[in-house]
Design goal:
The protein has helices at residues 16-26, 52-61, 82-92, 120-129, 137-142, and strands spanning 3-11, 31-38, 42-49, 65-77, 97-106, 110-117. It is α+β, with helices and mostly antiparallel strands and 143 residues long. It folds into 2 domains: 3-70, VC0802-like (2-Layer Sandwich), CATH 3.30.2130; 72-134, VC0802-like (2-Layer Sandwich), CATH 3.30.2130.10. It has a 6-stranded antiparallel β-sheet with strand order 2-3-1-4-6-5. A hairpin with a 3-residue loop joins strand 2 and strand 3 (42-49). Helix 1 crosses helix 2 (52-61). The longest helix has 11 residues, at 16-26. The chain is elongated, with a radius of gyration of 16 Å.
Amino acid sequence: MKVTQISSFIENRPGRLHAACEALAAKGVNIHTLMLADTAEFGILRLIVADPEAGKVALEAAGYIAKLTEVVAVEIPDDAGGLAGILAKADAAKLDIEYMYAFSTAVGQRAVVIIRFSDPDQAVDELLARGVNVVAPVELLRG
């Protein structure tokens, strides 16, 4: 129950993010969520899209470096303490988190956190054993 994410390096200059999104749109690849982290010269764009393979191909054809990575999507209550509860379970399992980002599907009801663990397979097993709802890719993309 892992999700495939696209990671792409983007030059930190005007128009590059737009061009990357346009490349995906031109190939009919729908973006479900994204996160952009920047440094002085480049950014790392992380995306969950409807078709990761097609998204990777579209970005590479537009001149971007793109890589597919396995991440874990975890459902949490969309309220104060929802994330803290999941992180407590990850800590109890001694899971190493590299980064994460989140989105809400219905404010006040459900949120999803995309987490990159150093060992995604172990993370899925440990979280499921602790009663955490690990979201399958099909369910995630349903919204």
